[in-house]
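User: Hey, my collaborator sent me this sequence without any context and asked if I could get a structure. I don't really work with proteins. Can you help?
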Amino acid sequence: MKTCLCCCLEKPLTEYTTHRATKDKKYTYCKTCKSLKDKELYEKNKDKKKEQRKQNYIETQAYTRNKQSQYYQQNKELFIRLSADRRANKVKATPLWADSKEIQYYYNIAAYFTELSGGFVKYHVDHIVPLKGKNVCGLHVQNNLQVLKAVDNLRKSNKHGCYV
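Assistant: No problem. I've predicted the 3D structure and written it out in structure-token form, which is a compact way to encode the shape of the chain:
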């Protein structure tokens, strides 16, 4: 049994919420009084609390975006490869026998050439035979990949052919 400091009634310990700071690990107010006090405090500081929540949301969002951006910058080749894999899987163009390490190698080369040019010339990994062409469809395998300048790859578009 414990006496509530607000209503001055003696109640069993089950009527109190837990609290680490007190000796008996229970709040000094019963659940009913604590609920009323919390509501009163919230109503008193409603605008301040809303503004604080809004500010926390903005800060958390900015922090998360910054972290995601950093991770993307550090793992660009992985994201580019995963994006291509996703597109390839979408059209069921990746067979089980495809060598994913060799495919990743092409994406690493493209990223390396782009970095070597200081970012002025971008390089893409191109499918020699398009995954979804008008007359023919290729596979997402190492034999069907080539590294091209982005300009040449965009010019080639979805056409069949080797532009080495």
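In plain terms: The radius of gyration is 31 Å. You can pass these tokens on to your collaborator as they are.
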